[in-house]
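quick one if you have a minute, typing this from the bus. below you get a single protein, a line of residues and a line of whole numbers that encode the local backbone shape. could you go over both lines and see whether the tokens make sense for that sequence. anything you notice is useful, everything is just below.
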Amino acid sequence: MTDLDHLTQSLARNLKHWRTERGFTLEALAARAGVSRGMIIQIEQARTNPSVGTTVKLADALGVSITTLLDYDEEPRVRIVPADQAVRMWSTEAGSSVSLLAGTQAPGPLELWVWRLMPGDGSSSDPHPSGTFEMVHVTAGELTLVVDTEEYHVPTGASASFEASGSHTYRNDGEEPVEMTMTVSVPPVR
């Protein structure tokens, strides 16, 4: 079985588990996540590999981290994630990439990411649930952060934090790669 097969099976199992745990019908989860009922059925039956955006919407709607949805195994008390096992969620031919380093449920999902954006690349995100906060720390280059429609420039060594319930974009308008770490804190489902 390939890593992709493991990931597909884990997502199917975990999505169904958390949907049942939250007491959501297929229709209720579809409405909360903005994902079609048919897509959720295909994911739960391990017949498709959804996009990163779809996976994020489902995790947000369930109030769990992406790590929780993609985990192969139950989480032990201390979980070490070797560098070669970080989950690459997005990459471009230019060399930009986003990897999920770690995540936990405490008391809502909390995730740690590492980003690399090549010059001219960027990534936009749909709004997350109200009360979701993101923090970034730029370790190389200068990040252009767009929250709603306002641009912010975050240089090497600087950090930024914001509520991510509106649209937001991470962009590299410079001439050298941007490297940053990011945490995402999602409030628990009420």
Notes: The longest strand covers residues 97-105. The helical segments are 3-22, 26-33, 37-44, 52-62, 66-70. Residues 3-22 form the longest helix (20 residues). Residues 149 and 168 are 8 Å apart (CA to CA).
